[in-house]
Request: fold
Amino acid sequence: MAWIVAKRLGSSLLVIFGSLVLVFTILYVLPGDPTDTMIDPSVATPEVIANLRQQLGIDQPFHIQFLRYLMNMIQGDFGKSLINSDPVLPKILEHFPATLALTAASSFVSVVVGVVLGVLSAVHRNRAIDLIARLIGLFGISMPTFWSGILLILIFSITLGWFPAMGSDGWNTLVLPALALGTVGAGFIVRMVRNSMLEVISEQFIVTLRSKGLGEKAIMYRHALRNAMIPAVTMIGMLIGEMLAGTVVIETVFSRQGIGRIIADGIMAKDLPVVQGVILFSAVIYVVVNLLVDLSYSFIDPRVRRSA
Amino acid sequence: MREAVSAEAVWVEPRQEVQPVRKARRFTANDLFLCGAGIIIFFIVACAAVPSWIAPYAPTEMLPGSILLKPSMEHLFGTDYFGRDIFSVMVHGSRDSLLIGFASVLVGGLLGGTIGAVSGYAGGWVDTVIMRLNDIWMTIPGILLALAIAGALGPSLFNIVLAVAVSAVPGYARVMRAQVMSIKNRTFVRASMSIGASPLRVFWRHVLPNSLSPLLVMATIGIGTSILTGSGLSFLGLGVLREIPDWGTLLSQGRGYLTVAWWICTFPGLAITAFVLSVNIIGDRLRDHFDPKKLTQR
Reply:
C-alpha cells in the first residue's frame, strides 16, 4: 500500500511539474508583452520599455526565465501582479476559501442528485422515473452555467427574494451558485451511474444473487451499486477539477470573491503572473483530488487492495 | 412479495444476446427526442445559413419607439435597450455562435485525432512520451486554458476557435489512441502486414477508416461542449465585439437589465441550451449505435 502511495505521489509531482512547464510555455509563446499592461503606450519610450523588461527579467532567453520562475515557484513565490504589485500566492490563498466552499457545495449537490437519480433511473429502467432522470441529466450537461445561474437569480432572488443574488458572505449566498454549478456535475454523474449500474446489473453474479433468492433491494444497493460506484468515483474526481474551473463563470455571475474571479479579472487586465498563478494552483488541486480518488479505490474495491 | 419482485426483474432483464430476433420497434420516447433534436438543429442551422429569410427585422435596426418591450406577437422575444428585436438579433447571431462550435471541433478533432493516431500506431516510447504530455495537458481545466489563450491572443473569432479547440485536443487524442491501438492488433490488420503492405498503407487503408467512428461520435458531442465553452468566453467578455452579437455576448449584455427585462438574458440562453441539448441527444444515439456492448440502447 505504501509503495502504491509513493508511486502515485511521484507521478503526481511529475504531472504538476509538467503543467508548470506547459503553462509557462503557452503564455511565453503567445503574443503580447507584459510591459504593454504596465505602461501607457503613449508615454512609453523604447528606453522605458527596455528598462522595465530588464527589471522583470523578460529580456532573458526562455530557459533562464523558466529556471528563475521554477526556483521562485519551489519557494512558494508565484510572482507579483503586474497591475498593483501584490504578491500572487497570498491573494490566491485569501480568496481560495470562498471558491473551495462553492466547489464543495456544488460537488455535494452533484453527487447527491447525480447518484440518487442515476440509481433510480437504472433500477426503474424505461419507466417514467427513468425518463425524467435522463432528461434532467441531459439538461444538466447542456445548460450553460451562466444561464442557469441567471435563471436562478431571476426566480429565487428577483421574483421570490429568497436568496441574495450576489456576494460571498454566509451560507445563503452559496445556495444559488452551488445549484447552478452542481447541476452540470449532476448531469454527468446521472448518466455515468445509470450506465455503470446497467452494466453491472447485466452481469452473471447478479443472476446468481437472484437465483439465491436475495431481495431485489439488497441486490441493487448492496451489490450492484457498490460495483457501479467504481467508475463513478473516477468521474467525480475529474468533475471536481472541472467544477473548480467552472467557478470562473459562476463567480462572475454571482459577483463572488474567489479565485475564479481573480483569473477572470487577471485575463481582462492582461495580468500574466496572476493568470499563471491561478492556472497552476488549479492544476495542483486537480492533481491532488485525483490522487485522493485513486487512493480511495482501495477502500471501495477490495480487489485493488489485494493486488497491492 | 420478495419473490414476485425478483421474478419480474429477471423477466425484464434478458441479456441482449439471448434475444436474437428483432421485433418491430415501437416508437419510443428516445425516438421522439431524436426527432425534436433534429428539428431544432435544422431550424438553428437554417437561421445561421439564411438569417435574413427568417428574421422579421434587421439585426441592427433600432426602433426608437419600442425600447425594452416584453415578448409579444410583434416582437417574439421582446426588444432590448436599443430597441432591437431580440429574435432577429439572435437569428443573425446564430452564425457566429455555431461557427465557433463547429470550427473548433474541426480544428480540435483533427489535431487531437492526429496526435492520438500517431501515438497509438507508433506505440513504444513515442506513445509513452505523447501520452504523458497529454495527461499533463488534461490537468489544466479546459475553460481555464481557453480563457488564458483567448485572453492573451485578444478577441477575434479565429482566436476563440483556437482557444476552444486547444482545450479539447487531449480528449480527442485519448479516444483516437485507444481505438487505433485496438484496431492495429486485429487479425485483418496483421494479415495485411503479413502480405507485405507498408505500415503507411496499412494505416491509411485499414487502421484509420476503422478507427474513426469513436472520434466522430466524440466530435458530435464536442460540438455541444465547444458551443458552451465558446459562449462562456463571450459571456466573460472575451468574445468578438461585432455589430451583431453572438448568443453569449447578447446574454452578457442583457445581464445589466435583468431586473427590468428578463427576456434579454433568457432567450439567448435558451437557444444555446436547445442547440447543445439536441446535439447531445444525437451524439448519445450515435454512441449507442457504435457501442459494441449496446448498453444504453435498451
Notes: Confidence is low (pLDDT under 50) at residues 1-14 of chain B. Chain B touches chain A through 60 residues (CB under 8 Å). The longest helix of chain B spans residues 199-238.
